[in-house]
Amino acid sequence: MTDRFELYGYWRTSATYRVRVALNLKGVTAKETNINLDAGENRSPEFLKLNPMGAIPALIDHEAKGQPPAGDVCGQQRGRESGVWLQHRQ
Fold first, then answer.
1. Residue among 32, 31, 23, 27 at smallest CA distance from 84
2. Among 38, 74, 44, 42, residue whose Cα is nearest residue 55
3. Could you tell me if 4 and 63 are in contact, meaning their C-beta atoms sit under 8 angstroms apart?
4. How far apart are CA 17 and CA 87, in angstroms?
């Protein structure tokens, strides 16, 4: 399932680390893309298309069929198969 999820994060943030841990606990793999906060890459037009707030981490589910709730990550499955996502690509 490597092609399904894509994690955009920055190696020095604990938030990105926590998402990696949650994915690992769920047995889900994701392609990782580093967003350099020091260089302001989170404010680039390309990244703002993925996450308009410019926040990281952003976990993209390429197979999502609609906008999931922002807080719906790992522990709060709410009837979904994996429950692991923050954003999806439209």
1. 23
2. 42
3. yes
4. 17
**Which residues of the chain fall below pLDDT 50?**
1, 69-85, 88-90
Q: How far is CA 47 from CA 8, 25, 28, 68, in A?
A: 9, 27, 23, 19
Question: How is residue 66 written in tokens?
Answer: 């609609």
Task: Evaluate whether 87 touches 30 at the Cβ level (below 8 Å).
Answer: no
Retrieve residue 26's tokens.
């769920």
User: How does DSSP assign 30-44, residue by residue?
Assistant: -EEEE--TTTTGGGS
Q: What is the pLDDT of residue 46?
A: 92
For the residues of 34-87, what is the DSSP string, one character each?
E--TTTTGGGSHHHHHH-TT--S-EEEETT--S---TT-BTT--TT-SS-B-SE
Output the pLDDT for position 45.
95
